[in-house]
Design brief:
The complex is a heterodimer of chains A (248) and B (163). Chain A is α+β, with helices and mostly antiparallel strands. Chain A folds into two domains: 1-38; 41-247, Porin, CATH 2.40.160.20. Chain A is built from three helices and 13 strands, in the order ααββαβββββββββββ. Chain A has helices at 2-14, 21-38, 55-63; strands at 46-47, 49-54, 67-79, 82-97, 100-116, 127-147, 161-162, 169-188, 193-207, 217-218, 222-223, 230-241, 246-247. In chain A, helix 1 runs antiparallel to helix 2. The relative contact order of chain A is 0.17. The longest helix of chain B is centred in the N-terminal third of the chain and has 19 residues, at 2-20. Chain B is elongated, with a radius of gyration of 25 Å. Classes of the chains: A alpha+beta (248), B mainly beta (163). The A-B interface holds A 97-100, 117-119, 128, 130, 146-152, 154-156, 160, 162, 165-167, 183, 199, 201, 212-214, 216, 223, 225-228, 230, 232 and B 1, 4, 8, 11-12, 14-15, 18-19, 22-23, 25, 27, 31-34, 36, 59, 62, 64, 66-67, 77-81, 85, 108-122.
Chain lengths: 248, 163
Amino acid sequence: MKLLRTWVFYISLLTGAHSVSGQEVAVADSLQTVVLDSLDIKQKTPISLRFGADLYRIIRSRASDDYQGFEAVADLRIRENLFLAAEVGNEEITKQFEQVNFTTKGTYYKVGFDLNMYDNWEGMDNHVILGLRLASSSHSQFLNSYTLLDRAPFWQDPETEITSGFASGERLNLNAYWLEIIIGFKVQLLNNIYLGLSLRLNRLISDTVPDNFDNIHIPGFNKKTEENKFGASFNYTLTYRIPFQFKK
Amino acid sequence: MNTLKNKLLFAFVCFGIFAGCEKDDICLSTVVGTPDLVILLLDKDTGTRQSPSGFSIRPIGTEKELVRSTGDSLALPLQITEAITQFEFILNGGSENENIDTLQINYQRQDQFINGACGFRANFVLDQTPVFILNSGDNWIKGAVILKDTISDETAAHLGILH
């Protein structure tokens, strides 16, 4: 029941702009009750800020010549089990995808909520997270080289690489928007230090398709497949919670 | 707690399915690749399709032979690394009054993106003057007309050769 009410609140937040305000008050009231019910001792919800970085992207940047990326993450606790969360990242990746070699460069932003579904024992602060993000990227695609599809090659080796000409070059000012559904963990390593892993199922909403090419890779979204709007990504974060906690 | 575990397990399984079931990145064999130039042999007076006797085509610069080198409608492969391709148009091949005209096809290549798995195919745009007849003198080919200046498929003829 507790979980249900929390979900109602969570969904009402997402659709809040369109709902009747009276309902919101009612839901908020019921949540208030829930929060109070679940907190026998603490009457007030601590607000705390936590920030950090994705370790996977740092390691991958060091390990691979074809990848440079960084992602900063932060979340703000606004209820006992509810967090405002955001990620900001920058990526440059060179990929050989089938017959096409390209470089994608760009920045992405993700904002949304994390819901902690884990019932901690007194003094513990671990998380099992369900989350939702709205994400956007602004990026460019540079087509480095490709080979031509030729069903009956006559003059040349079909593996001949085309590196310049009509189709080559950079496509600037591209955008993409998508939603992410997140499941993940955060484990409290030390008092204010957390290690987190999150898996993200991405659903593309829209993207600017580059001229005579495609967004095969989108920063933050990863691989986009043709006629399939789903993608997947993950991060592996180390975060630090600012010890100072506001009292609401 | 048990139900929570089940929900999580379900969520992970869903994630696995969605992440694992991306469409295979295989270029389907039905996708059309780089097209050939399709020519028609037309009678210079009437404009009707007509294959002259003893006619064949030989590409210049290779030992290879065309898959089909006779008839009144032919597909000629164009060079991708050059903006020209040359062919010998042979009349009455093998006989005493053999007449060979050397034709140069002029074009620009404009590669067209298909999709991630297939990559690109070459399209060609014929120049304003699509054909040079390189040999002087007794030409049996009188000229050429553009039927369709963009070569992006092989469903219709692109160039008419007048004789």
